[in-house]
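WP5 quarterly update. Target: non-specific serine/threonine protein kinase. Source organism: Lactuca sativa. Length: 1391 aa.
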Amino acid sequence: MSSSSSYKQFAHLRIPLEEIVSGTTNFSNANLIRESAFGKAYKGHLFRSEQQIDIVAERLDRKHGYGDVEFWKEISMLSSLKHENLVSIIGFCEEKDEKIIIYKDKVNGSLDKLLRDPTLTWMRRLQICVGVAHALSYIHYDKRRDFSVIHRDIRSSKILLNDHWEAKLSGFELSISQKAARRNRLCLINVRGMRGYCDPTYVKSGSVTHKSDMYYFGVLLFEVLFGKNAVMVNEVNRLLAPLAISHYEGGRLDDMIDPVLWKQMDPQSFKIFSEIAYYCLKKQRSQRPNIDQIVMKLEKALESQQKHENPAYSTVEGIASKTLKGKNVEHLRIPLSDIVSATKNFSKTYLIGSGTYGDVYKAELDHFDDKYFLPLQEKQKSELPKKRSIVAIKRILVREDKQGEQGFLAEIEMLSSCKHPNIVSLLGFCEEGPHMILVYEHAANGSLDNYLEGSGKLANLSWMQRIKICIDIARGLHYLHTKIEDERRIIHRDIKSGNILLGENWVAKIADFGLSKFHPKSQQRNTLYTEHIAGTKVYLDPEYDNTGKLKNETDIYSFGVVLFEVLSGRFANDLIYTKEDSNGFAPVARRRFNEGTIKEIVDPRLLEETHESVFTLNKGPDQDSLDAFSKIAYQCVAENQAGRPTAEVIIKKLEEALSFQENIKDNLKLSLEGLISITENFSSKNEIGKGGFGKVYKGEVAYADGRNTIAAKRLDKSLGQGEYEFLMELEILFEYKHENIIGLVGYCNEMDENIIVYEYASRGSLDKHLSNNGLTWRKRLEICIDIASGLDFLHGGAVTQEVVIHRDIKSYNILLNDDWKAKIADFGVSLISPINKDMDYVITNPCGTIGYIDPLYLKSGFLTRGSDIYSLGVVLFEILCGRLVCEIINGKLQILTNLFKRHYQEGNLDEMVFEGIKKQAVPKSLTTFQAIAYQCLHDESKNRPTTSEVLLQLKRALEFQEDYEIWAPKLPNDYEQTFKMSNFPEIHSIEKKKNLYDMLCKGILLQEGKMLFSLGDNGERNGMISARKFLYKRRSGSHKWRSVPESRFDKVAKMLDLSNLNIQVKIKPQFLSPGVNYGVYLVFKFCESRKSVTNRMYVNLKYKMGRETLHTYFATRREDGWMMIEMHRFLNHEKDDDFEFLLESFSRCYCESHDIYIQGIEFRAIDNVKHEEIKKLKEVQQLSIKSDLNMEHVQQFSTNFEKEIDRFEDYDEGEKLFSLNKVILKKKHYVISAKEAVYKSTDVKLFNVLPSTHSRFQNAIELLRQQVFRIKCKIESQRLSPDTEYTCYLVFKLSEKCYGLHCPVIVRDLLQQRKNKEKGIIYFRSPSPCNVNDTDRVPKEREDGWMEVNVWKFNSSNEIRDDCAYINLKLISYKGTMSGLIISSLEFRPL
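Structure tokens (predicted):
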């Protein structure tokens, strides 16, 4: 296909060469307006829609090194960027080896040709620079776009001027774009650009940011100021930038300025302009201003020049603090009707905040446009320049104390005299009737206090952003405190996080001047004395609060509190701080700083933050940055005003903190010495690979828990790759982590060495295994899926990440670990791309490996995700055929891609399939794989599949293979016959084996829908017989047939009387697995939803099996929402046995009167161990108990326990026993008599006392007829071993007259009931296996003839209160009384 087919999205821009030749008079020299590295530019005209338009035709000249890539880059960029200060592209021509780009406009020429032109006045120069700044602001970030552009080639020859002297930025052939969210990150790219303009940091590091454009722009500003080019050919000091820096620093700039131009300049305009130009050339990029700051400064310089040239224009004077009448603020007045209309009569829809003094609304409104500096008094109100924008409207409440009115007047007075990027702008006001309304610029990101405490928003603000916000606040304060010339200084008096607004790009602006104070013009001293103390308590300067001394330092104290809020992420009045000190955060912060524990108050979210540098694993703020920030914050909150710094000092210190953070230390960096050691000086015996980057060595790293193998790739610059590739790979491996991307361990860049250290892939690269017979087809499919998964992640599978195009996918770059997990490696030539839905390509110089590189990309320079897909397709064919795509045949290099494709097209690709897998591969798997591999190699990128589509087909191929290898063996031998008996008799022949297996696991209906056959987890056969096969012996009205969506059968039985079921079940289990233990379960559910149904519920089903009457007590909730209750267990034999049950009743007491649905009887395989565990009760440990010690012996246990280990003390009238247990590591053992343990009611007799035989105590107790009894006692902590798990056993017998206590008994811990509502279940008689859950506790017989059951467990340390362990248990019988239960004691034994 032709390369031009990639560009059809630009087809509407094509212009015939004939028209351009005619419009430029055959490129006449008379029409030549500039010559650049791209080529020559000619002015001319074209006819469009029967109208003649002025054009500029730029003709590519390849002799300077520019070509197709730069040509299409310019077209691509300008077709997606539209701004009044950018050149507008009309079209292009690509005919007869000509490549021409056509721009729209009548041009006076390029700026470089007019630098010395006297018609280019200082005012025009300023306007041109402002225009270029606006263009840069637009390309760097515009919220309507999701990508950002770095120009990389700003210079005077790229600035075209139209007949109105308006600047038009051109020359985007070297520009790069990146996602808007990434605009503050480094971008690695090969160095390009014109000498004299290029950012020296970019030249040195190979990384650019938007601050690189600021350097170019700084050079341009000095070109405009001096009227000289950046490179002065005939002068000793040829480069303008270093010359300008030295003259600025020496105060000699006027030496380089044309005298005629110098005379035109307003001094303030010159000062602002030269200062911003100088700061643009700062060596450290972090010290350069951003473009928004530059725009504001240049507009201020322009404003100053306009006032200088038009003395009639002057800044509006501040209004009196009492009234607005007669003051020159009419241009700010906005009719109430406009505001009412904009807010829909102050609708709540527009309300964005409320406070003590009023409400704030957000709306779109027309207001005075203050960027036009006109002599206002000469203009009628209707002629005033207007602007429509989103604004914040503050509607002030009328208050009895008049503070609202005072604040309203003060805001207008203060803000009408302030103009600074870090002070909120007053756009207008309204004073009509009782209405007092202020209109401000809208802060898009709200106020700083919205990002404190638990709002979660602060997570969006990195440590670097926080510092920048604080710098902005400090700059605003510095402006207020040091206003120049005859302007009065302002003390804000209420600096707090709620009064800091955050605009676009997080620029901070000080707001709310209602309490602010002017220094009177006549007052020279720095201190004001006020009778009324104003401000917010926890921010309030203590010296001002005590003395009334109001100074700049009052604001500094408040700002210090804000600094600590930003650091901690909490409000100054947070309870954490006010509990510690009633004055709030400041005194707490001072104390923490002095104690050296300031890091304890750092926002924990910051401690998880990684630095924006791609080469560090450090988390949280850099320590030097944190120290510098906290130190200046501490100084700000000094108790005495004299000890606080000025705003100017604060700015300097915060900028230092920012610089530390921007140049954060790197924890990924490894020492060269260490790498030399572990690789044995890069010994050849440790060499495990080599490539275009260099050689790779294996090494052993020692860790505390063992040794780990790593791989160190050492750059060899003689092979063509260099520092750019080194940095690019580091950036991608650091940011893009995935199980199928090789893991980064670290890097080294010492002594001209560039080394990347990776996780070790023990099996090496894929190319070495292509012809490995042991690499099965299934394993090859899994490797392919791994590669596609990694590539899908890089291509945007991670939504939060940008697209990475690898550009060199090949089998050499696929590494394999021990378990054959594939990992994509070698990202040196990869590209982090701004690809999005609107621009799905990048224009760049082709790179990659022959045989794997996308031919379309190689020819055109248009790089897409599809380029990687092509390379992936080549690797897929290599894996299929067991050979590399490039082979030496008859002494010549042969590329097999076309051979792969031809064999596929001819239908005989099987001839090329690797012999080692031919017999393994299932035909469906093979054809699915071949088809997707072939699609990957499609000539047109748009017709290639995406990574997700490739993944889908590869997984299908693996499913077909696994169907044969894994799922077919899992199916029963007779699965075909089983399916033939189902409702879908032919499905077995068309469905995949996995689907059939899944269907059988879920269950299929047999026997005309009256039996559900299914497979268990281990392949055992299960069956459920429908309730339709039961016999209902009562009258017809006892049950009804209902359809229930949750049932597997079409009908279920609705039973209307739970107390009299009378259902006869006679069934013969079929299709069950022989030799397997089965449980027989009744499957049912309540018709009405119950408020609280736990997973296990007492229902007490009474039934007969043969002549024996049985009870099963607990039903269990299943995953499908039904309940099941076990009725019987049996071992299945080859022959089928009949089972007969008569279902009699459920407990009406516990089931209430709810009707139930019965689905059927299920035969389900059970665990054999579980089936046997109840049959044999474990023997209980026998404890030798001696009771012949006195108290002295007990007291000696702690010091002489080995001698007394088996001695016991009988004390407290024989009701308690204490011992040390030899068996369990000499832990203490405690016994309490039943008389001591069982709770005695004062009103009711609960038990009789009986003499006890064969017991440790003389007496036991026998409970009387009651359903409930309690155990309530306490144990002194010294009687228990510390930090020990104890089990509490109830020692008991059943009297000969006891015929009850068959049912389970509930045990509730009354002390823990709120924490844990789960109740324990115990039995006093051994239950049938059907009635025992894993957590139930059953009785065990002791050697002394008594029984015991576990009723409680506790930890001796956790349960201690007031030096005692308290026990308060409530035991409740589900049915019947406790009569006949004889209790001997309560024993506490360590586990």
